[in-house]
Amino acid sequence: MIARRRLLAGAALAPLAGVLPRLAAAAPMFESVLMFVPAAPGGGWDGTGRAIEQACRAAGLVGAFQFENVGGAGGMVGLPRFVNQRKGMANAMMVGGSVMVGAGIQNKSPVTIRDVVPLARLTEEAGAIVVPANGPHKTWKDLEAAIRANPRAVSVAGGSSGGTDHQLLGKIIKALGRNPREAAYVAFAGGGPANAAILGGQVTAGISGYSEFAEHIEAGRMRALAVSGSKRIPGVDVPTLEELGLPVTAANWRGVFGAPGTHPAQRQALVDLLAKMHASQPWRDVIAQRKWTDVFLAGDAFGKMLAEDIQATEAVMKDLGLA
Fold first, then answer.
1. Digit-coded pLDDT (tens) for 94-141
2. Which one is the CATH code of 30-124+252-319: 3.90.180.10, 3.30.43.10, 3.40.190.150, 3.40.120.10?
3. Pairwise CA distance, residues 257 & 184, whole Å
4. Which CATH superfamily is domain 125-227 in?
């Protein structure tokens, strides 16, 4: 009789066995997310998008990601496509940042970063000035002397024309007493091609976020001469420009934007997703690994910061003759 009761009890619980695991596991906030990257694979924006995917999936916040990369002109090729083709799409996000601000000003684009919905600023990364390890410039003073003598003879690779890298070079040239319009800046649509040009000696130097050069620096293929932050990057023994006697600081921020036409509730759902991701351990691990600075700012506060950044960037772009 006891055995029979146990058998009946087991039979009664059997249908619940397949249900209980699903009840225990929290459902993701989004079943899927379209991550639009207005740059070629391998650069900073693409790396940020992949990091968001890595953290969200590890934290169980999103079921699946679909990526779309459309590079060129500091995001000005991809941005109109996102604005026009993803309008009102509640699960679409676009990675962007300070580079896109300058590119919109320079290109006098009819579609700019003002046309997308600010969701959150995520990270800030100081620029690094690097040279090929086998090149003639061994120290910052070597490169500085070359720029002082003739900026046009010192070609520098970086992201799109008018972007953060270009602006940093202009600030350096101005601080050295030369005209920023003399900059010999060579723009690339992605980090991969820019790195290849630096390593191949096709340019004198390169400027980008430290993480984009880290692999080559650690392998001894590139030499980092300076970083542009107000402080040194933690764990990286490279002096700031201020330490080297040049009163220049700059940082490249990256963030996430929603599609135009989304409702306030849809926007808030995406902001909430990014806030939960930001609070997660997987995201903290990514930040530490990539040596990014956490500058999380969400919603309306990010929108206000963006408006101020556009105004400040316009002044720098005028110095470069690009606005």
1. 999 998 998 899 888 999 999 999 999 999 888 999 999 999 999 999
2. 3.40.190.150
3. 32
4. Periplasmic binding protein-like II (3.40.190.10)
